Amino acid sequence: MRTVTVVGASLAGLYAARALRAEGFDGRLVIVGAEPHRPYDRPPLSKTFLTRRAPDAVELAELRLSDREEEDGLAAEWHLGTRATALDTAGRTVALDDGRTTRHLRTDGLVIATGAAPRTLPGPPLAGVHVLRTYDDACALRAALHDGTPRVVVIGGGFIGAEAASSCAALGLPVTVVEAAPLPLVPQLGPDLARICAELHADHGVRLLCGTGVKGLRDDGTGRVRAVELADGRLLDADLVIVGIGVRPATGWLTGSGLRLDDGVVCDAGGVTSVPQVVAAGDVARCAGVRTEHWTSATEQPGTAVRNLLAGTTVARHTAPPYFWSDQYGTRIQLAGRRGPQDTVRIVEGDPGDRGFLAVYEREGRITAALAVDRPRPFMRLRRRLVADAAAPCGPPAAPAAAPGEGAWPYCSAASGPRCAAPTPGASPRRPAPPTSRPPCWRPY
């Protein structure tokens, strides 16, 4: 393999490039990014970035994920401000468009790390309506927030919407959050803890309207938004609207490539796709039936995917449970694992009424996830245990949609140690045989 191309120059793309060099790849490394900026950290964009005033050049430097010395060490060709527009898997070429010219890049291996793009509302674009995904999005939104005292409506009560609302409240702006579901974050947190987290809005003077969608936006006759019309007929005056209704995986350029696409690039738990020498990682990757849109996953998945790319087959799988954090109204919310609809929840430390607690989700005596509000230390201890338990073959995993190269049992990494069963005669040398007994590695808290 002489040339490897990483399409996507954000977090997952940078970590893929680092992993390639760390794994000993010394060939030509090409990094393609649609944005004109070197890789930068996105989480601050919905938080302190919106509330402070500073020269943009200074702030962008503070957000950078790598410095010049590291970038020189990667010895990569950077093609920034350049979109990948098509993939020819038979010819092993990626079509690139920098806004001036279109060309085709020949590559032996490909890492897809194009992330996701914000969902938008139907209808013509209006001034005063913003999404928040990129550095340029955040700059435009911040300029609007600091221009007078705009009445803000946030559409979507998820993490991005809640963080944006928190920043607006910190600026002293009148804010209303509209959420179509009965409560924000019920799928992730369950109704009881979602209700507690939703109360943070009211605690800080932000109005939260749940159980109603948005019918449309009203303009003032000059192409600028003036109101949000709700599905129940109410009309909310608005000078500025922030749309935070989720994202779509950036897979449009892969249409017709032969890759399996279904809410992302379909791949196995190691990021291996249906096409040889093509792997995926980060927000765009639907690994073993699950697509995870979290910062931590975007840093962990690329190493596994790159290892498999260089090996030419799935020799490693990413087993760590998802983890994310959110800072809202001066409060840190952390969640690790995946809560199931039948899980029970138990408070093990603190008091939800005091807005500080640690809770665990349990199923059949096993901890499946943990949620903390301003309890970082005990949470991280519990998270480490969840990670260790997930790496052990404690029983058959949930049955995801069939994916290429996906076996019936999780790959045991070196970190799993002696708990991994030795291969039996006739078993694949790259995939351990299922253990005959399953250790009780999920323990009650």
From TrEMBL:
Domain FAD/NAD(P)-binding: 3-301
Keyword terms, alphabetized: FAD, Flavoprotein, Oxidoreductase
SUPFAM superfamilies the UniProt entry points to: FAD/NAD(P)-binding domain (SSF51905), FAD/NAD-linked reductases, dimerisation (C-terminal) domain (SSF55424)
Biased amino acid composition, Low complexity: 421-430
Extent of Pro residues compositional bias: 431-445
Pfam families noted in UniProt: Pyr_redox_2, Reductase_C
Keyword Glycosyltransferase in annotation: no
Superkingdom to which the source organism belongs: Bacteria
The Reductase C-terminal domain, residue ranges: 323-390
GO MF annotations, alphabetized: oxidoreductase activity, acting on NAD(P)H
Keyword Protein transport belongs to the record: no
Gene Ontology cellular-component terms listed: cytoplasm
Co-factor(s): FAD
Segments for region (Disordered): 415-445
Gene3D superfamilies: 3.30.390.30, FAD/NAD(P)-binding domain
Protein name: Pyridine nucleotide-disulfide oxidoreductase
Organism placement in taxonomy: Bacteria, Bacillati, Actinomycetota, Actinomycetes, Kitasatosporales
Gene that produces this protein: hcaD_2
